[in-house]
Amino acid sequence: MYDAFGAKKLAEQRALDATDQEIIAKAVEDGVYTAWDRLIDQQPQCGFGQLGVCCNRCAMGPCRIEPFGKKPDKGVCGANADLIVARNLLDDLSTGAAAHSDHGREVLEVLLETAEGKSQGYQITDEVKLKAIAKEYGIKTEKRKKEEIAKDVARILLEEFGTLRNKIQMAERAPEKTKDAWKKLGIVPRSVDREIVESMHRIHMGVGADYVNILLHAMRTSLSDGWGGSMMATEGSDILFGTPTPLRTRANLATLKKDMVNIVLHGHNPILSEMIVKAAEDPQVKKHATEKGAKGINIVGMCCTGNELLMRHGIPIAGTFLDQELAIATGAVEVMVIDYQCIFPSIAQTAACYHTKVVSTSQKAKVPGATYMEFRPETALDTAKEIITVAIDNYPNRNPGRIRIPQKPIDLMAGFSEEAIRKALGGTYKPLIDAIVAGKIKGAVGIVGCNNPKIKQDFGHVTLAKELIKRNILVVETGCAAIACGKAGLLVPEAADLAGEGLKSICNALGIPPVLHMGSCVDCSRILMLAANIAKELGVGIGDLPIGGAAPEWYSQKAISIGTYFVSSGVYVVLGIPPKIFGSPNVTNLLASQLTGLVNASFAVEPDPVKAAGLLEAEIERKRKALGI
Ligand code: BF8
Q: What pTM was computed for the model?
């Protein structure tokens, strides 16, 4: 047990942000177990697992390889460390690619049902994007209603998941030189489902035995995510809910409100969260809230579904992955609505410490202790209203003695889709390219990914972003990285004061922050498109651009897929948490060094964010030199 002083000290070690620290201390005082406590319980974590040399793939095992050259050097089947590490990596990566892509498929199914008039509450919002994609796929748009076009677009995109054409059309958006590199390596993605299913086949005992061949398929699978499943999730969501444009909103746990019904939307797919936001506008629902003594309904986002709402509607965001338990520990959340991904399996147990109800909505993600309210497109608006009703009815159950809401939300600017950035530059990337050539901006880095309790929450993201902008490197972000920097005040134009002179002058001229929020994790596809369009304007490959990527606090299998599709597309990526590969020097060498000769990019691991900034700057300088700038 900790006293108040001890709880405060512990909180300062666990998180960077003052509002998080306040609630971590409260959780500790309340005796609520969180991910940080569970991490302590797990010490020491398995060394074989950390090195990636544990194989639990078949019933001859589980096996492990002795990492220091002693016996056993092979599993019962004969697999050595290289193979076991490569198979485990492909397994994790494919899980991440599947999560993104399955989310994308659901968005497209809703688009189709909407076009067919079968969904409830949805509409086609961005006709310009709809028609642009129709054109890309050779679908007629003249003299046709948007619903007719949308039917064809949804069907042809859904077909990309299992296409017989042996290539994903959307990946054609990559620059020619980048695609040539894929062709040479034999990693052009053929279809989303096929690559993932083939991954599962290859890692079955007795199939793939060559670690290089397995890693090449990992690259292909990741490309089917980045340039396939994820990109389709982004495009489908834009068509349904609108392509983001710059807007202002607020972040951190102080976005919860004392006198209002607080609903936290946590998870990933906007098809759920968009409908809850819409339902909360219903006058009957609002009236019900006031009848129960609340001043209204306060909807806040969390994690990536929060990013989706923030980007399109400016809905405030309560926090990142590690804030999910903290939001509940404020004692002020009536309902946490979840769909899937990045939700702690024990979240309902955390909620049971307070009056909070967890409402799960997806057949794919049932959670013990949660109230299950199945969410289907045909009844979406009705279900959304019912979920809000559960929250309103729970408002009188608050325990005023257990509530603490931090005071100061932080302002931020978001909504920087690729289209919005291009528009801000006047319709072409020439001004940005000129600034890079002139050296005012050295290059750009995408900081993406999660929190991980192994690192002080947000420290990696925020320190790296500050260090990069100081060095005149523009930062673009998605996922929890973007929320972290929002909470730290880096997503406002005034943060340009923290940037080097060159970057500061550009940000001031355009009225933009030095760190641009580009969306959720599937919206890393927006970063790919930004890089692709700049490369095309210059007539080079993505691998030639002075850019980099980083995931300082990653935890999820999705992040492995994201990192790999960036590297496979030519972007050097620095990880702050070591992947489980160090049990194989050969796999490590391939990923950290040999890939440069193949795609002009590789992985690096650097837990110190200041040193990571140095690595990224050096890579940017290397690429600038090669371009002759
Ligand atoms: O998909 S950044 S913790 S919320 S995995 Fe999850 Fe990581 Fe956050 Fe979003 Ni992305």
A: 0.98
